[in-house]
Amino acid sequence: MSNIQQKKGFHWGHxxxxxxxxxxxxxxxxxxxxxxxxxxxxGENYYADGQAYQAKINIQNQSIPSTxxxxxxxxxxxxxxxxxxxxxxxxxxxxxxxxSDESRDKTIHWKIQDGLNWTSPTDFLIxxxxxxxxxxxxxxxxxxQEDRIVISKK
Length: 154
Description:
By secondary structure, this protein is α+β, with helices and mostly antiparallel strands. 26% of the residues lie in helices and 32% in strands.
């Protein structure tokens, strides 16, 4: 055999090229999928929301007397949300915020004729993370309870 003829087959140079090609294909796939993902973490009125944030923190950090606590329970296999309001409640609302899809956000307002045991369907909650904010007022004093929930439907 002469030195001009080389051994044909797979060697480390081919491995490096295959690795770069596979990495490039993965990055292209990742970029295409992520560029179609819709993330809506900033609201329309972000400046005004930022200005009101300190007031929200102050309301959230105040202590809630035990007679004015609110109870939240899931009932009927998580099909409904039962909110037990304290006596003397003037107004209440529950906001469900979906970080990745603004169109799924929902606010439910309580009406005094609903009584202190307030039931609301949860069929609009899709699987994934949510932020639940409950606001209520008693004798003109406002309270806020905020928590993060993860819905997993089986």
